[in-house]
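Let's practice the habit of predicting before peeking. Look at the sequence and jot down your guess about where helices and strands might fall. Then scroll down.
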Amino acid sequence: MNTFGIGGSTIEAELNAITPKAHLVKPIQKEEFQSRIDKACLMMKDQNKQAMYLHAGTNLFYFTGMKWSSSERMVGALLFQNGDLHFIAPRFEKGTILDFMLINGEVNCWEEHESPYKLFVKILQSNNVVTGAILMDEATPFFVIDGITKVATSYSLENAKSITAGCRMIKSEAEIAIMQLAMDITLEVQKAVARILRVGISAKEIEDFIHEAHIKYGATAGSYFCIVLFGVDSSFPHGVKTPKNLEENEIVLVDTGCQIHNYISDITRTYIFGEADDLQKSIWSIEKETQQAAFDAAQLGNVCADIDDASRKVLESHKLGPDYDLPGLPHRTGHGIGLDIHEWPYIVRNDKTVIKQGMTFSNEPMICVPNKFGIRHEDHIYMTESGPKWFTEPMHSIEDPFGVSK
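Done guessing? Here is the structure:
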């Protein structure tokens, strides 16, 4: 094969060569969680909003440091404009809530036969909020919204996205440092994947290897997700029901990531196993040009839509598309990333969010060629005071994706 860094190794050898890295960066500290609450309270004052509900899940964790999964029971917290924090939970969970608590707040409990929605109203009233708009975590399940609406007749419920997203979109230096390490680890796993490839290897074998490799690097939960596609399967952006085994001269697409201190990595690498034909080389090169155009458009003061527009202009110049037509780019150019793999801002035509320092998002303008293959270059960007920076450097070439020959 006229390729570099692809094949020639074994799963055992690559796993044995891994040295843990996750310990090289600290998790978010208590002081930063408190600063997030302080910022949210200032934004609430600016918007003249008295309280915001944070439901179990990402937003509750982001602001309070409490890791709690959403379920059929209402668990969350009310944050008041003055900074007071009131947790809401079933009484039998109180001890666990106190154990998980990082930012102090009063724990308000309901018994299994009681209404947590009436408790919600009682907390508001006891904090002198008797009417007006209450901001609700946009990820709050409908059953909670519905339950509150039926008993909170003197309040209106509004989307808290302006505050939740407004805070979470702008990453701190500590957040970016964690994400950088997660990206570095996943890139090393990607390199190892390329080295273990051989004719006949299954997607499942590679998925299992990726999972184990992430664990050995210190991402204790292993792979956060994993997509491994060969040949025609790669033309389906998020995979197929039954992935095929690898054959000679096929496109290889691997999309994976892990979590370090709750922050997520997400990298896709696409290259050839064997000899690339003219169409594969052409589409791969167009994809690289498109990804670079998107990077160049990611400038402070531009809007997210400008990045998506830049991608599609390049594709149309090569007679691909237009819009979402195939062969071409069937989805948005990218998505924000942080505690969630897909979060704000979204790199899509209708997103007019202004690009600011601290934003982090993917750059992945995939090109799908129906019934043949797909090419996705996915790296992520973080915005600095001087413009966009790569978390990981883009691929080098279709035969040498990791720049081994440089």
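How did you do? The chain is about 35% helix and 20% strand.
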